[in-house]
Amino acid sequence: MTEGNFVDYVKIHVFSGKGGKGSAHLHREKYITKGGPDGGDGGRGGHVIVKGNKNLWTLFHLKFKRHVKAEHGGNGSKQRSSGAQGTDEYIDVPLGTVIRDTETNEIIKEITEDGQEFIVAEGGKGGLGNWHFKSSTNQTPRYAQPGIDGQQIDITLELKVLADVGLVGFPNAGKSTLLSVITAAKPKIANYEFTTLKPNLGIVEYRDFKTFVVADIPGIIEGAAEGKGLGHRFLRHIERNSTLLFLIPADAKDIKEQYDILLDELKRYNPELMDKDRLIAISKSDLLDDELKAELSKELDKEFKLPYIFISSVAQMGLTELKDKLWQMLN
After folding, report:
1. Closest-CA residue to 313 (of 292, 282, 278)
2. N or C: lower Cβ tally within 10 Å for the chain?
């Protein structure tokens, strides 16, 4: 998936259909005098329905769709014929989409299952025809109900990607390179900060045809929770990851300090992220010789209570062990 095609946030104005009018028709037929009321009911207006679709990965197909309008219900007619129901309008979304009321920012619903449907705007009810109102004292009602108006609402769709592993690290820590090596994804890789501007997803093929999904989140910097750098706009994507893989380059001045900064930003964004499984990968380890690696391991054993692993995406070093460890943590 190219960067420009990853859309995770759209606003849409939805209109449901108006209910059809009831008919005030009076029955007319040769040789039948005073046939009485026979006006049918109006049809229901169409709903606007958000539906989960497991084949979608992004909201790109809704990027230029600013308005969604369902069909109005048909009017009732003679011989108690009801009007046609308005056609429902469906908005297909990927799993993991949150529906918010744009005005209040309140969460209306989360779509997490394939085929799950939720009516965001109900169609208006059709009006009753005049035959409903006949009685012994009112045998020829010449009135019927109008249809009820449909609903209008501004909704915001937010996608939180459903990945098993989330890559967390500073810009240029090697997250995109790792993703490109262990999956078939082709993220943009360059030697400057914030090369990755949108999350990238890749599927890791493991032993015996097993797979798991890894999400590469744009680099976090100190102060991201306050909106610095790319801010916390993309941190919501790791809320659904069961495991967080912290990537810290071997040439970092202080590995423990970098880890603490990253952890602090996640905690300030959402304290619940602290409950997730964590693994530390020391990237660019091909820069270290055996002596330096042994020295660094001694330091890390003192400072870290978490498991860590030395890897190099370029030299294809430690990647099998990394996959084994991630699979073990996921299962």
Report:
1. 282
2. C
Q: How far apart are alpha carbons 28 and 138 in whole angstroms?
A: 18
Contact status, residue 72 vs residue 45, Cβ threshold 8 Å: yes
Question: Residue 97: beta bridge partners?
Answer: 111, 159
| Tokens linked to 49 | 């329905």
Residue 208 identity: D
Question: What totals of helices (H) and strands (E) does the chain contain, helices first?
Answer: 4, 14
Would you give the distance in Å from CA 216 to the centre of its chain? 16
Helix runs in the chain, H state only: 175-182, 255-269, 290-303, 319-330
233 secondary structure, DSSP code: T
The two three-digit tokens of residue 256, written as one number? 């423990």
- The whole-number average pLDDT for the span 94-111 is 91
Q: In this structure, are strands 277-283 and 308-310 parallel, antiparallel, or unpaired?
A: parallel
Q: Which residues lie closer than 8 Å to 88 by C-beta, 6 or more apart?
A: 46, 47, 48, 49, 70, 123
Q: Tokens at residue 151, please?
A: 């609903």
Angle, in degrees to the nearest 10, between helices 290-303 and 255-269? 40
Q: How confident is the model at residue 1 (pLDDT cuts 50, 70, 90)?
A: very low
N- to C-terminal Cα separation, the chain: 27
Q: What is the DSSP letter of 148?
A: P
Rank 126-130, 204-208, 215-219 by mean pLDDT and report only the highest: 126-130
Q: Is the pLDDT of residue 189 over 70?
A: no
Query: With 60 as the cut, is the pLDDT of residue 226 above it?
Result: no
